[in-house]
Amino acid sequence: MRIARVATPAGALTAVVDGERLVPVGGGAQQTLLSLAMAANADPALRPAAIAEPIPLAGARLLAPVPSPGAIRDFYAFEQHVRTARSKRGLEMNPDWYELPVFYFSNPYAVLGPADPVAAPPRSAELDFELEVALVVGAAGRGVGLDDAAALVAGFCVLNDWSARDVQRREMALSMGPVKGKDFATSLGPWLVTAAEFAPDGIRGVVPATMLARVNGVEYSRADLADVYFSFAEMLAYASEAAALRPGDVLGSGTCGTGCILELALTHGSTAYPWLAPGDLVELEVAGLGVLANPVVATTDQAFTLDESRRRPG
Hints:
By secondary structure, this protein is of the alpha+beta class. The protein has six helices and 21 strands. It folds into two domains: 62 residues, FAH (SH3 type barrels); 226 residues, Fumarylacetoacetate hydrolase, domain 2 (Alpha-Beta Complex).
């Protein structure tokens, strides 16, 4: 089942995607969507009753399926992406990468939905997309084992982990971060696909799905979710070690191989793959999950400046 949040004149609604129409089935609260997803996972034949007339999908304003996650943990789980980035810095793969499914925490207050505009931070000239899949938690858990991980999953959606590469580079050279290079925008959408539909064989094995990125209609990236090194069960179990997961939490897969401009430019040159600029349209597509599209716009935010009156001479 594909479940969306859609804006209407009467307010946000939760709707089941039925072909080229949206069938409203409840209020637009995040918890409504998660509860419906969990119920549909328990009973894939579930068909919730409509509460209003269907809405044409074409022209509908879709909202982020999970607008207020308690936490966003973004993993680093595709070996090709990691290996390419490290090799260009003269680094071998760290053996610990194969043992620890590491992640960073992103900003849960910077979630955007389909068609929402994205602007780079004001000090950045190197805006990048990152093509990922998000797992959305639907039930609470702590210290979850691999065999029990699937019971916590509501569903999956496309994730764009926007990055300001120049800011990120400076921050991480200080052994901190990602910080402002990442926390300005994370796009989720276009809807949530239940775990029963997207991963019918469970989440301990691979979930094959073609992953594509296009900029202004030109294909930039092509990969397969099945190439991920860590399973979603391993990611969820590691995230829950000595820490609680709650409904609405988001776990990102990390960037797939070729799934960002940074990696493409390192391999093929920055002339072929320039950084994003206002006016660009980024479309991320994952088979079975849909297309998440966002336009890039110029920032209107003010840049941070130091308080020079507090600096000491020399």
